[in-house]
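Title: [Solved] Glycosyltransferase 3D structure

Original question kept below for reference.
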Amino acid sequence: MTKPKKIAVVCNYALNPNRIGGMDRFWVAYDQKAKALGYEIDWYFSDYTPFEFFSELTIYSANSDNMESFFLEKVKQDSLKYDILVTHFLGLCSSFFKKAKATGIQQIIAVDHNPRPLEGFPLAKIIKNKIKGILYSSYIDQFIGVSNYAKKHILKDYGFFLDKKISVIYNGIDTSVFVKRTQENRNKFILTSHLRESKGIQDLLRALSIVEKPILSQIQIDMYGEGPYEDELRRLTAEFDLATIINFKGSSSKLNELYADYAYLIQPSHGETFCYSVIESLACNVPVITTVEAGNVLSVIKEDHNGFLFNAGNYNQLAAILKNIVLGNLKIEKDVSMPIEKEFNLEKMVNEHIQLLH
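Solution (posted by the thread starter after getting help):
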């Protein structure tokens, strides 16, 4: 009888019961599928305190320590043996992959979710990435980009010689858990994001600061998420006198139900590789206001069809969009959800990732 192959999945990602999103649902579905096929699977996350959603997974928590070091030390201390290593949200082409391979791992799959800065990397970083690609890419058997944009930048960052080792697997969502919008709620907007500078939320606040008061008073924006930039965003909210407009809601595990309460999602990001919130919003029949390249990295938002686009950082353009929505000059009344159900679904994502295992 053949011994089942054992998988380690290492994710630089903190699990949070108040934030159950697309990747959280993917990991549970992937775990179920892998086990059904006879694999054994252990999960490594940067931080985790047990809660029900992940109760069926075998999880080791790094307790916010360095993810790569924690995994290597755990393998060494407990004499663990893995046949396959899959990584998510880790930097690519680092010495970690060489060290992991040396533990006896036969196959390494590295999934790239990491956004790039809008203005590009500085020259020193560009050179460093090229060197890392030469030194360490051979230890990674398969690179996965979550979009064509991600694949393009893996090649650009680490070397075009990697082309044959890179595949694209789009992230997917379980459309069955999302509630569709049925009412207009024209001036009620939602923003869901990790609160960091690259998400461009400061541009939204600046845009609101130049909207005329009679129009501004009709706008409500609920902001869901947490992150290191929250204090600065709260400071700007106070500086621009937006306390009655912006509502900081923190993290929520119910976003799949909450989207339906809003007229539009606002995603002013400067850098994305996939952008789950855009897909989730469309699945809920909620059109999207986002940036031309970063927020629309999947090219799913079509102007006046399922959303409105502006250039990243251009808060004047964003202000004009918001103003014209309130005035009724811009509106989207058609159902925007159907294409998403066909192209970006969770089952397809899981099956394509499972097919990589050998």
